[in-house]
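From the pipeline queue, job 12 of 40. The input is one protein chain; the requested action is below.

Action: predict structure.
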Amino acid sequence: MKRREQSQTEQLKQALAERDAQLQEARTRLAAVEDSTSLQVGRALTAAAKQPGRSLVKLPRDLYRLWRRSGTTQHVQRRRPGAEPVRSFDADRQEARLLSGMAGSSEDLLVAATVVGPAIQDAVSPYLRSVPLRPHDAQIVMDGVDVDLVLVSASAAAAGSPWAHVGDPAAADRTRALHWVLESAAARGIPTVLLDDAPAPPALRQLGFDRVHRGDAGVPLHLFNPVAADLTPGPRAVFVRGAHEDPVPEILTELEAGVVDADSPGLADALRAANVAVVPAFPTEDTRLHRRAWACGTDVITHSAVPHAADPHAETLAVSVPRMRAERVTPSAMRLRLRKVFLQEATPVRLAEILGDLDFPPGTPGSELPLRGRSVAVLADPAGESDAELLASDLTGAVLRPTEVVVPLAAARLPGIQRLRAEGITVRTVRFGAPDTPAELTRNTPGAPVPRVGGLGPDRWAALAERATAPWVHLWTGPVSRTRLADLVCAVECSDADAVGASIGEGHGSGPVDPLDGAGERGFFDRPDTVAPQYVFVSEVVPELARTHLVRRGWNPDEWNRRGARLLALGPDHGPAGPDADDEDAVYNSTDASTGAVG
């Protein structure tokens, strides 16, 4: 504990270097001994003593050869190991992380030393590998762990947290510890960022951060989302109380509206359970709560003051809240709002903006890592030039462009595929043999057909997925809307599902599909999707987007749920404000007007 000048990582690296030096010296000495004339003469005499007959005849000749070479023997040069290669910075960095227990995961996330509030910690946890710092161990952790970023939030200075009142002269010890962390990061070339998301002592912003971002970390869609909103019990209206603990308006009490604090851990569940949320009209809370409510599929009314009995605002609340509570947000409006939050204000987008221009140390992957989880490879098998043109039109006009496209080698020269290359989209090819044979069209169970997606069997999709490098694959089977891919990726970011697509079954309303209803009577892809659940986990889907490693296994899609995959149902695009609308921004802005402020 007292040796803070030398970190645990440095001690382990020094010990490893000493062992390597000792091993190298032992190898050099062993080579010198083996090359020595004395050892070779001793071996020759020993061999002659063990086999006197033939070895005694060869002994004079062997001794004469040793004598002839004795004047030119270079003892140390035989099998001497070559010079060690120059170690790169990245190799040293990965070695340090391995020794300190911070080896990179398969997702290859940025490692951030964090001094943040609980809300920021929950928001960034899927996109950054956090190493929390506390005032009493900040120096030890910073010395022992190789990090890419130091992330601090003003909310960490809130009362009751380990860093309470940091930056205030009354908390000099915590301010001194954080200042040391920033100085250590500057000496190592590690960027430092402050998220100014809450009131904090002014001295906190003057500690020397590389960047001060006015705002929070965006909307964490893994927390605020409409998944299973219809299954969440609760009142149809909720009053979101601000940080200053507003009293509940009397009219809302009469309407039996629920109450939740803006910083409560149960805010997402309360918003999902309600049709309408009444939020405070504070500059720091208004937009943030609006976006979180919209991500949960909830309409919003903004109030600017506490209404009284004689106040005309009370009458407005008494009219607007019951009206909006009786209505439900249409699927197209909910999809549009959620899509806009996903593309513009979600946490990975906000992190990419914050980290965009920072200078990271050599070997650091970069600021694009928070968005790497949205990378999609499109798998397609166009039947001809018309299909290839449809594929190119879909992908070049998509709101969210894919990272790469994987097609059979025979389709690589089609004009549509060449158009994708010209647009800067990576195209990968797969060489197939003969077309699908009858054996490939049968299941393991004799007499039962294999479920097929878009005319292709699981084996052919698996072969295409083998060439994909993105974590997600989109099974393209025909023309889709320009926002369909964005909605699919948004759905998996909200739910952490393994696959998402249209639901299977009919007559189920908005609840989950009963896996036994009609199962076995018709083919897996034969039942029409007459009723489309939205953002609900089900047992069967027509897969549109799935994890790459899941498709590579070549399993039949109707077995995914039984093999542990989590499947999410996403209804089709529909409505005039849907994906084919000419001006989505106008529709999106109209939602702000429809939830106009009260007061």
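Job complete. The longest strand covers residues 541-547.
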